Amino acid sequence: MHKIQTFYFIVLFFCPFLILNAQLVNIESQRMQVDSVRFVLKSDLLFDYSNNNGDYLSQFTANISTQIKSKDLKRIYMFIGSYNTERSKDQDFQNSFFLHLRLNQKISNVFRFEAFIQDQYNALLNINKRKLVGAGLRFKFISTPNIKAYFGNAYMYEHEKIDDSETEYYNNRNSSYVSFTINFPKSKVNLTETFYFQPKYSDISNHRVFQQLQAQFPINKSLSFTTQFTYFYNSFVPGIARDYSSDLSLGLSINI
Predict the structure, then answer these.
(1) Which of 41, 90, 82 lies closest to 60, judged by CA?
(2) In this structure, are residues 206 and 20 in contact, taking their beta carbons and an 8 Å threshold?
(3) Model-level pTM?
(4) How many domains, in total, are found in the chain?
(5) Could you tell me the CA-to-CA distances from 30 to 54, 92, 102, 167 in Å, in that order?
(6) Is 72 inside a domain boundary?
(7) Is 57 in a helix, a strand, or coil?
(8) Is residue 36 part of a domain?
């Protein structure tokens, strides 16, 4: 039986699940485990406009995640895209986009090769432009009907830029992650935990840490309540001793 495809819809008083307010985005949470299904698409779109005595506020958010498998199911092409803007008459509160393209090639039942490119912009971040390219291996070290666990390690070359000062950085980084997914058959609750560590090869004290815990609680066959906690830490940001953030997101997911 094919696994159910999950589509997140955004409600105005809930936070989007593709978190773009940090320099690192959890790609693990965007993977779609759908066995032999060759094409999967997740997307959401939100537009809101209000005008109060001539003072207007507009918001537009678009997210898309798609996954295409080859005929032999050994190769997966994954694309993630997001765009978000919030504007008033006098100020831009948010202006960001995120693009990620990834190739996943099966080597054996436990090993896969991955290559990826990424482009990211966020006007509110200290480092607001970031491009990277990388490649590495993904290892499945636990595989049971209810528990899946993966370890990944990759090299990536990144280009970062600060608009205000025109300062640019070119870094060679290592990117490692561990990801666990646990399903509880009786309650049908699903837990996903992901931990990333990204140090510079030449200076390990210059690193990023990212942790995310997501839980889905089914309400019925078509609807689930989802909560997600995210923590991000960057040991080096120009002009700041350190940079960290935490975020708690609550929302609903609809299963089709």
Answers:
(1) 82
(2) no
(3) 0.75
(4) 1
(5) 40, 28, 11, 31
(6) yes
(7) strand
(8) yes
Q: Is residue 119 part of a domain?
A: yes
Q: Is 28 helix (H, G, I), strand (E, B) or coil?
A: helix
Is residue 1, in this structure, part of any structural domain at all? no
- How far, CA to CA in Å, does 206 sit from each of 26, 129, 166, 227, 233? 20, 18, 21, 31, 11
* DSSP assignment of 94-154: EEEEEEEEEEEEE-SSSEEEEEEEEEEEETTSSS-EEEEEEEEEEEEEEE-SSEEEEEEEE
Tokens of 58: 């507009």
Give the residue numbers spanning the domain of 241.
Answer: 6-255
Task: Give the pLDDT band (50/70/90) at residue 103.
Answer: very high
Q: State both tokens at 222.
A: 């078509």
pLDDT given at position 82: 87
* pLDDT tens for each residue of 68-94: 999 888 999 999 898 888 887 667 667
Please report, for the domain that includes residue 164, its CATH number.
2.40.160
Is residue 195 within 8 Å of 176, Cβ to Cβ? no
